[in-house]
Amino acid sequence: MSLKDRKKGAETKLTLHTEHSNSWIAEECGISNDTVTKIRGELEATSKIEVARDLEQGGKIPPCDALVGKDGKKYLASILN
Fold first, then answer.
1. pLDDT, position 24
2. H helices present in 1-81, as ranges
3. Would you tell me how many other CB atoms lie within 10 Å of the CB of residue 55?
4. Cα(47)–Cα(1) distance, rounded to whole angstroms?
5. Please, what is the angle between helix 33-45 and helix 22-29, to 10°?
6. pLDDT tens-digit series, residues 23-78
7. For 73, what's the count of Cα atoms within 13 Å in the CB-facing half-sphere?
8. Helix-strand-coil split of the chain, %, nearest 5
9. Whole-angstrom distance, CA of residue 79 vs CA of residue 45
């Protein structure tokens, strides 16, 4: 897969699993944690993170305060990113 494809995959995963940590998504997509952090920041800044479930504000998700690591535990987003 090209880098462009892997970044698109990370964007899709962030859209579907906003609670997953950047490092988890980075490992799954084969890109760096820094790249996922950048993609998440861009999506949050432009309110493009949406999910297929019914959420307030038309399905848009605000920046996460806590993320879930691969170990299944919740962590403050500032610690993981």
1. 94
2. 3-16, 22-29, 33-45, 77-80
3. 12
4. 27
5. 120
6. 999 999 999 999 999 998 888 776 655 443 344 444 345 567 778 888 888 888 76
7. 5
8. 50, 10, 40
9. 20
Determine the length of the chain.
Answer: 81
Residue appearing with tokens 């760096």: 32
Exposure b/e, 3-29, CB count within 10 A at least 16 = b: eeebbebbbebbeeebebbbbbbbebb
What is the set of domains in the chain, with CATH numbers?
A: 3-80 (1.10.10)
Q: Give the pair of three-digit tokens for residue 68.
A: 């879930």
Tokens standing for 17?
């699993």
State which amino acid sits at residue 75. Y
